[in-house]
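Quick illustration, no need to memorize.
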Amino acid sequence: MAAQLLDGRAVSSAMLAELRAEVVDFGRVYGRRPVLATVLVGDDPASHTYVRMKVNRCGRVGIQSRRFDLDVGIDTKELCRVIGDLSADPEVDGILLQHPVPGHIDERAAFEAIDPAKDVDGVTRTSFAAMAFTEEGFASATPGGILALLDAYDVPLAGRHAVVIGRSAILGKPMGMLLLGRDATVTYCHSRTADLREHIERADIVVAAVGVPGLVKGEWVKPGAVVVDAGYADNRGDVDFDTAVERASFITPVPGGVGPMTIATLLAQTVRGAQRRAAASVSPLQPLSSR
């Protein structure tokens, strides 16, 4: 029997519909819309496409977007200054630095210039620590989106063996932390892992996040396992979908699985950030008793 698709497009559409209602309520109470600032360095076509998609989704839910397109020649110091100014801007609720940035820029330094209270993409060390210690904060957008997708299909996590393939600071590592926080037993695999196939064959949940098309063969997947493909290169995922779909219980399509959930999570966290900041520092336009 073929696996059931984890339909990120359908789940994200439902999330966006709920966010639209929350944004309307936010505007009625606080007299403004949540604001997301997007920062893009250079002219990489894929990055421009991703930012355009995020800006368009902002419009769909009523979030105000402010886009900052910076010259490819900008240096780390100037980029950090721009992000620092946005962090200090009381009208900005969330900041997204589109990654990857050009190679001459210290990406980690640029991420750390983001105020953690506005780190709605979950890329700072502070956000990672919050994920690791299961404290309040912002999840990395793609791992957070994956959890939301699994929850939407009532996929159990506690006690299950999850294998995460990839150890990037904004995808693989936080994915493992979030799964661990939900009581899964987590194994990280990466480019130096010996016998990758053996690890996958024992996994109840496989999250592939390396961007190597076809890395995970379908016959490696344990019958009944849940397969989440967060890789994307040349319009293909990390998992050999056509064979894995015949063995897994649930599987994400590529595209249409993880990608839409990433954007929906980014926007949901922008609204959460706006709500937290407004509640802490801005008087509502009407008393609580009248809401």
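The CA atoms of residues 213 and 238 lie 4 Å apart.
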